[in-house]
Specification:
The protein has no helices and eleven strands. With 119 residues, it is mainly β. Strands 2, 4, 5, 6, 9, 10 and 11 form a seven-stranded mixed sheet that branches. It has a four-stranded antiparallel sheet with strand order 1-3-8-7, with no helix packed on it. A hairpin with a 2-residue loop joins strand 9 and strand 10 (104-109). The chain starts with a strand and ends with a strand. The model has no long low-confidence stretch (mean pLDDT 94).
Length: 119
């Protein structure tokens, strides 16, 4: 079992920055990848960024060059630095942890944190 707690959301003006944090606990040594997803009203949840156990990263095209995912292993925390925010970045952001067991992927989710980009 893995527990995830997000923080850092809020209201920001277009062009501003926010940093989201995801604190992990539980069977963290079993985690194969961590990621941030978001879901806007009326839309499906989508991948924003992910980082693997080996440190490889992957970003949605819409956030490349603006968002950065990173991790602090000593603090068991994953971050999402969001710069040059746009109104279309408004969504609930969810932290995700994946544990792979053969062909089965176990997904764990945080409770979500709201990000609103508006003037």
């Amino acid at each position: 079992q893995v527990q995830l707690v997000e923080s850092g959301g809020g209201l920001v003006q277009p062009g501003g920055s926010l940093r989201l944090s995801c604190a992990t606990s539980g069977s963290i040594f079993s985690i194969d990848a961590m990621g941030w997803y978001r879901q806007a009203p009326g839309n499906q949840r989508e991948l924003v960024a992910e980082i693997t156990r080996g440190g490889s990263t992957n970003y949605a095209d819409s956030v490349k060059g603006r968002f950065t995912i990173s991790r602090d292993n000593a603090k068991n925390t994953v971050y999402l630095q969001m710069n040059s925010l746009k109104p279309e970045d408004t969504a609930v952001y969810y932290c995700n942890a994946k544990i792979l067991r053969g062909a089965i992927v176990y997904d764990y989710w945080g409770q979500g944190t709201q990000v609103a980009v508006s003037s």
